[in-house]
Specification:
With about 400 residues, the chain is α+β, with helices and mostly antiparallel strands. About 30% of the residues lie in helices and about 25% in strands. The chain contains eleven helices and 13 strands. A four-stranded mixed sheet has the order 1-8-9-10. Helix 1 packs across helix 3 (about 70-80), helix 5 packs across helix 6 and helix 9 (about 325-335) packs across helix 11 (about 380-385). The chain is flat. It starts with 5 loop residues before the first strand and ends with a helix.
């Protein structure tokens, strides 16, 4: 029997966290290439440390884009809000070390003759959805993201003075009967102005936590931790080196569901690490939206250069109203899970990725220009019909 009474914790980090700075820069590069050429290929990694950024990887696309990458990286850092002695958008040294995509990889991925476009790599990808929140996301991660988003919006607008760009949150919820009922502890660490003391920062943070959590869910005062070390003035890449792809659990489901291991940021949609994970979330969310289950996990797998998925697995965690093997067949019927099929269905060859680099790739609202298209629930009726 699955446990129904327990505590579960998820964390989030802000756009100014060192790893998220790197995700933002890498996805800015992806967007720039896709804007110039929707068929461009990008695999971009970024490292950031004290006043130093290194952008490396492989690309295939217009040469003119390469000449603008340093300026785009500076603008991304500026937009995040870094104008500090140890990390400044204007003064940081930026090395661009991108090179052409491997011909060996290209020949396996590109369509040719009767061969359809293959997956950009081997791997396993997961998608998940549940009824804990309106966004069909796990509640601990949902609230952890939203606390930091609210703080970031207040910082950017100037409504609250004293917050820096770097921040982390952690939310522990109590589950009773398998449903979240309250927070048992909240942790928020935020970079702050040097003239603010710990108690002042605590009171700046408190309203954002209270505004995000459902009424009556706030933890006990002794379990509300704000900057537990006492001081957080030096932050961002000056305080800790950052790398692309180190926050994959923050990016997905906060540990409430499996993760295949591959990061998303810095990769164009021919890489199934990204596109197939989006497709799995799309299918899982539509299964739950169709009221076929209260929880749904989906796994797919691929081989590099091969267009069809090697496997499709569905787990409804005992909450299903349809047989799982029957649902697996139905999902294969309603959506083409080849790399080409995913990209066309979700319209992924657009410059829509920089916005995904903070506060999660899932649980967001679909946008009019195609951003977060995998969060639509327009497939629910098709799935219901296919399993009827």
């Amino acid at each position: 029997m699955p446990r129904t009474d327990y505590l579960f914790t998820s964390e989030s980090v802000s756009e100014g966290h060192p790893d998220k700075v790197c995700d933002r820069i890498s996805d800015t590069v992806v967007d720039a290439y896709l804007k110039a050429d929707p068929t461009a290929r990008v695999a971009c990694e970024t490292l950031a440390t004290t006043n130093k950024v290194v952008i490396a990887g492989e690309v295939r696309g217009p040469e003119a884009v390469l000449r603008r990458i340093e300026d785009m990286a500076r603008e991304a850092i500026r937009d995040i809000g870094y104008e500090q002695d140890g990390f400044h958008w204007k003064n940081a040294k930026i090395d661009v070390c991108l090179h052409s995509q491997s011909a060996d990889i290209a020949q396996g991925v590109d369509a040719a003759g009767n061969k359809d476009e293959g997956a950009g790599d081997q791997g396993i990808m997961f998608g998940y959805a549940c009824r804990e929140t309106d966004s069909l996301m796990p509640a601990p991660l949902h609230y952890a993201h939203n606390i930091l988003k609210a703080m970031s919006e207040a910082r950017r607008s100037g409504r609250v003075k004293g917050f820096g760009p770097d921040a982390k949150s952690q939310v522990t919820l109590q589950y009773v009967g398998g449903r979240p009922v309250r927070a048992t502890s909240i942790v928020v660490s935020t970079q702050h102005a040097s003239d603010l003391g710990q108690e002042q920062v605590r009171e700046l943070v408190r309203p954002f936590v209270l505004s995000v959590l459902p009424k009556g869910w706030m933890c006990k005062e002794e379990e509300f931790y704000v900057n537990p070390t006492g001081r957080f003035v030096i932050g961002g890449p000056d305080g800790d080196a950052g790398l692309t792809g180190r926050k994959i659990i923050v990016d997905t489901y906060g540990g409430a569901a499996p993760h295949g291991g591959g990061a998303f940021s810095g990769k164009d949609p021919s890489k199934v690490d990204r596109s197939a994970a989006y497709a799995c979330r799309y299918l899982a969310k539509n299964v739950v939206a169709a009221s076929l289950a209260d929880r749904c996990t989906i796994q797919v797998s691929y081989a590099i250069g091969v267009s069809k998925p090697l496997s499709l697995y569905v787990d409804l965690h005992g909450t299903g109203r349809v047989d799982e093997s029957r649902l697996e067949r139905a999902l294969s019927e309603v959506m083409d899970l080849s790399p080409r099929g995913i990209r066309e269905k979700l319209q992924l060859r657009k410059p829509i990725y920089a916005r995904t680099s903070a506060y999660g790739h899932f649980g967001r609202d679909p946008e009019s220009d195609g951003g977060f298209s995998w969060e639509r629930v327009d497939l629910a009726d098709d799935i219901k019909s296919a399993v009827a």
